[in-house]
Design brief:
The protein has 352 residues and is an alpha+beta fold. The protein contains nine helices and 13 strands.
Length: 352
């Protein structure tokens, strides 16, 4: 007999055989299949942590086009840290406003801020994670990097801890950065820097080792006027790839101390020109090895203080792995710290 091709009706025949034989006569067989776990790269995991931290800080996420005006791309070209890099122009742009690939994520956030301010939204706290593009100095190699940018401007929201009339400033933005860094167990070093679009003397870079991870500062007055913001604004931009490279490979946990810490507060009157970071480092080195932690918690300036002076307050935590420290052991170290501050900065203990 001729062969019959049942390929198209095979499923129907199998169903009929199973029905006539009885479904109860078939043994239950579970399908076997390999399930592979979803791999999340370190970069993807870092982006998730950053998004979560900033949302908890009250920031809203923005998404903008990667194409901007050529003049904007040029003016923010130094955002990547190299003034001799060149921009990338499109051969067939959608419009003149989208002619060039962005060299920084900040212009898009500025447009978002202007749009929100024009609609009556007074405080603006926004961030964006997006790619930036530029040509290396040789004019051939094109670099694409993922950056995080944050912008804050306007008065604080109603909060029992803050004055409503206070404008978001550099320190609010720095607090957001440190909220992110705490999640990564990463410590950075701050150094003064300058960008064309940032106010002179109000910009810093943050380093992990000798690698620049990003920068932050107050927007230059000419930029505020150009964008018609009507108020100061602070911005931050960070290279996500460099952040991932700087992360410690293994997080090490320390054993819980057997003996409690002994706490002291120190409030000093010091010149305004003395960087608080350097003062904290001097306190730390002078108080070692008994001094474990140094944290600044207050910076006060007033006309009641001496001219050119400000008050800095630090919380000190002394600890010994061998015993509970007594006042007789802590007081000499505290006096040594006060003397070192006086010798180097002419600082004195604040009594009022």
């Amino acid at each position: 007999p001729a062969e019959v091709d049942i390929g198209h009706m095979g499923a129907d025949l199998i169903e009929e055989v199973a029905r006539l034989s009885g479904y109860d006569n078939f043994e239950t067989a579970r399908p076997l299949a390999a399930i592979n776990p979803v791999y999340v790269s370190p970069k993807q995991a870092s982006i998730r942590k950053i998004r979560e931290a900033l949302r908890h800080s009250g920031c809203s996420e923005a998404i903008n086009y990667s194409f901007i005006e050529e003049a904007l791309s040029e003016s923010f070209k130094t955002a990547c840290g190299k003034a001799d890099n060149s921009t990338i122009s499109l051969n067939n742009p959608i419009s003149a406003e989208m002619k060039t690939m962005r060299t920084s994520v900040i212009p898009g956030l500025l447009e978002t801020a202007v749009r929100n301010l024009s609609k009556g939204q007074k405080p603006v706290k926004v961030f964006e994670l997006g790619n930036v593009y530029y040509k290396e100095p040789d004019g051939k190699k094109i670099t694409e990097r993922t950056n995080l940018a944050i912008l804050v401007t306007g008065p604080n929201e109603n909060d029992v801890w803050k004055a409503h009339s206070k404008i978001y400033d550099f320190y609010d933005l720095k607090g957001m950065l440190e909220t992110i860094l705490v999640r990564f167990k990463l410590q950075v070093e701050y150094r003064r820097t300058q960008r064309d679009f940032l106010a002179p003397g109000k910009a810093i870079e943050f380093f992990a080792g000798e690698c620049v991870v990003g920068y932050m500062g107050e927007l230059a007055p000419q930029q505020v006027r150009q964008w018609d913001l009507g108020q100061s604004a602070c911005v931050l931009e960070m290279d996500i790839e460099r952040l991932v490279q700087a992360l410690p490979p293994v997080v090490k946990f320390a054993q819980i101390p057997k003996f409690p810490e002994t706490y002291r507060d120190i409030s000093i009157l010091i010149d305004k020109s003395a960087p608080s970071r350097e003062v904290a480092e001097l306190i730390q080195s002078t108080g070692a090895p008994l001094l474990g932690k140094v944290e600044i918690y207050d910076c006060f300036e007033s006309k009641k203080l001496e001219a050119g002076k400000r008050s800095l307050a630090f919380a000190l935590a002394f600890h010994s792995p061998e015993k509970t420290l007594t006042d007789d052991e802590v007081n000499p170290v505290f006096d040594k710290i006060v003397k070192a501050l006086g010798d180097k900065y002419g600082a004195s203990l604040r009594t009022v």
